[in-house]
Write a structure and sequence with these properties.
mainly beta, 7-stranded antiparallel sheet, 35 strands, 52% strand, disordered N terminus, Ig-like_fold, signal, T9SS type A sorting domain-containing protein
Length: 503
């Protein structure tokens, strides 16, 4: 029995009149026994391992319903403390079987709803009963027995094949999609992109929170910060209705889902974040940046919807290179690579080409020497024009032995910051972040530099002297927690914006 469902699961036993049976209901899912008609309506998902079973009982005689009981596996309770149900006005609810409580009338383990004195279900009245059941308990039952009794009559007993009448949904809500990145504390998944045929494409990401803290926000950075991005909401309002509730906004290329009610979005539970963007702006080769924040930590990842960040090892470098990727970001072209092991590795030289044939060295990153521990590297190329660029790594040993990685291509459609300034390294892994002004003339006439968190709080205000080309920002001095930030460069009435990830 999971205590967190106390605060999450609001189950209301709604009194309703049913005029006809659903014609689409499978055979055997609506059963009449005497004056009682039972219907197993189906199963809906509550969380990753709990489902809600729904039944409707119609009493077609003058006799008053006394109780109804639904079978559970031996030794199991419904996935909610029975005293919670006892607070509802029409029935008292308990788990058990004969001998455990005088309110349990079945000879098998069950959850029983016993009508209170003022409750009169009769004369054609229908009542819908719901209770939560763990997937494990659902699978233990070969069928579900139901017993009900009206005043003055013997108990009525019927049996439902719940796997036919209430199959567990096979939609993506059941599990994380195959395209996913598992970071331990959180798993990020991409469920797919659908061309709507009206110039827009709908995308959906799934996020599983494996921490013990409720989610406070989810942010998705859309590559290129296109206009026309909208949240998919089933009420067309500002709150996105998924499994939990958020206030959803889009600004400067960032979709922000701020928690309104995410109680229980913990311990492996999943939610889904859906939005549309202009089809012309959706490039599957580009990566989305996604962050999940709780009160204790922020987990951030880049997500390429084509590769799902699951690359095969790359040969023939002497080091065991697991991946080598590049993407266009607001700071420039960001290159990342990862090694599983290294032997006498002095450095990586980063080489660039505009035609894929002639390469030149543009930077160097120190290697880890000899190690069997996974290493992560990054390098940002602050290019000054748009186009397609080709990159490769030249790996050099201490003895001068060298070899090359595969070549990757990255397309840059617009200059970082409109050609005004760049922020690097991004994501920030160390203690210093550099803001570099890329332009000339009026672009370096000073201004004001700001760093703003996702709630709008200004974390830094720095006066930029005229002629400044680079400003170094000390992260330890600002005491900024991990997460996503906005960097603004204000010059008169001109405002340039970049995103910053702190890991």
């Amino acid at each position: 029995m999971k205590p967190y469902i106390f605060s999450l699961l609001m189950i209301f036993l709604a009194l309703q009149t049913v005029s006809a049976q659903d014609d689409q209901q499978p055979s055997g899912c609506s059963i009449t026994d005497g004056c009682l008609n039972y219907s197993l309506n189906g199963a809906t998902r509550h969380d990753a391992d709990t489902y809600i079973l729904s039944y409707t009982l119609t009493v077609n005689c003058d006799a008053r319903l006394e109780y109804i009981a639904f079978e559970l596996p031996e030794g199991s309770d419904a996935d909610e403390p029975s005293n919670y149900f006892a607070s509802q006005p029409d029935f008292t609810v308990e788990d058990g079987k004969s001998g455990k409580s005088n309110k349990i009338a079945t000879d098998y383990n069950a959850i029983q709803f016993t009508a209170k004195q003022q409750t009169n279900i009769s004369h054609g009245t229908s009542y819908t009963f719901e209770y939560p059941i763990a997937v494990e308990d659902y699978n233990k039952l070969s069928a579900i027995r139901v017993q009900a009794k009206v005043a003055g009559a013997a108990p009525s007993n019927i049996t439902f094949d719940h796997r036919v009448c209430a199959p567990l949904p096979t939609t993506p809500e059941n599990a994380m999609p195959e395209c996913r990145i598992d970071l331990g504390a959180a798993v990020f998944g991409f469920t797919g992109a659908t061309d709507n045929g009206d110039g827009t494409t709908a995308l959906q990401f799934a996020i599983q929170n494996n921490t013990a803290e409720n989610v406070t926000s989810v942010a998705i950075e859309v590559p290129g910060a296109p206009a026309g991005v909208t949240i998919v909401s089933d009420n067309n309002g500002s709150a996105y209705h998924a499994n939990y509730k958020y206030k959803a906004t889009y600004s400067d290329g960032i979709l922000l889902f701020e928690a309104q009610n995410t109680n229980g979005y913990t311990d492996g539970n999943i939610d889904y974040f859906t939005f549309t963007m202009p089809t012309a702006a959706f490039n599957p080769e580009e990566s989305f940046t996604i962050s999940l924040a709780t009160s204790a930590e922020t987990i951030v990842t880049g997500f390429n919807t084509v590769t799902c960040e699951e690359d095969s090892p790359i040969a023939p470098l002497p080091v065991e290179l697991l991946s080598f990727k590049g993407k266009a970001t607001p700071s420039g072209i960001e290159l990342k690579w990862e090694t599983a092991s290294e032997s006498n590795n002095d450095r990586f030289e980063v080489e660039r080409s505009v035609d894929g044939k002639s390469f030149e060295q543009i930077g160097s990153v120190d290697g880890a020497g000899t190690t069997s521990v996974k290493q992560n590297y990054n390098y940002t190329d602050h290019v000054s024009r748009t186009g397609t660029f080709y990159y490769r790594l030249r790996q050099v040993d201490f003895d001068g032995t060298q070899d090359y990685s595969k070549t990757i291509a990255v397309k840059l459609s617009s200059l970082p910051g409109g050609g005004k300034f760049a922020v690097y390294p991004n994501p920030a892994l160390g203690t210093i972040v550099t803001v570099s002004v890329l332009g000339t003339g009026a672009d370096v006439n000073g201004g004001v530099l700001q760093i703003v968190d996702m709630s709008g709080r200004v974390m830094l205000v720095h006066q930029v002297a005229a002629g400044s080309r680079e400003i170094e920002v000390s992260l330890p001095e600002l005491q900024l927690p991990k997460g996503m930030y906005v960097v603004n460069l204000l010059q008169g009435t001109d405002k340039q914006t970049q995103k910053l990830i702190i890991q």
